[in-house]
Design goal:
The protein has 142 residues and is α+β, with helices and mostly antiparallel strands. The chain has two domains: 46 residues, SH3 type barrels; 72 residues, Arc Repressor Mutant, subunit A, CATH 1.10.10.1650. 35% of the residues lie in helices and 23% in strands. The protein has four helices and seven strands. β6 and β7 form a beta hairpin. The two termini are 21 Å apart.
């Protein structure tokens, strides 16, 4: 499911991909449900393509979000954009002890927390991953 959830540069929050073609994507905001066009030259990234820098490589965002959900027992996180940086870093250290402290900034962690809260609020399944069987079915239909 995270492959259909997008972050669009210059726009706050997260968006669900509704339709796509060569020059235009239509996305729906989780914040207000409005559909907006996102043109091909605008930068957008699927959450399934995001990872967090760690000392031993990169950790997929899906794994980090799953750890956050386990720690919070499926509830939203109380920390927010106004929380002090020391609390933000302490929280990240609990979730991902080996995150790269030189490459992961407080603003990155605040955005991660914001994304997590949006996903939990809208009951998005964080564990859902495309299986090889599903991928094979799509390839055989093409």
């Amino acid at each position: 499911m995270l492959s259909k959830i997008l972050s669009v540069a210059g726009r706050p929050g997260l968006y669900k991909l509704i339709s796509t073609n060569k020059t235009l994507n239509v996305v729906e905001s989780f914040a207000d449900g409005k559909r907006i066009p996102v043109y091909a030259q605008e930068k957008m990234v699927a959450l399934s393509d995001v990872s967090i820098y760690t000392e031993s490589g990169d950790t997929p965002l899906r794994d980090v979000l799953t750890k956050m959900k386990e720690r919070e027992n499926g509830a939203q996180i109380a920390l927010g954009s106004k929380s002090p940086n020391n609390e933000i870093f302490a929280y990240m250290k609990e979730i991902l002890p080996d995150y790269d402290t030189e490459k992961v900034y407080a603003s990155d962690i605040k955005k991660l927390i914001s994304w997590y809260n949006i996903l939990i609020e809208h009951n998005i399944d964080l564990e859902e991953q495309p299986t090889e069987e599903t991928s094979a079915e799509v390839e055989s239909e093409a």
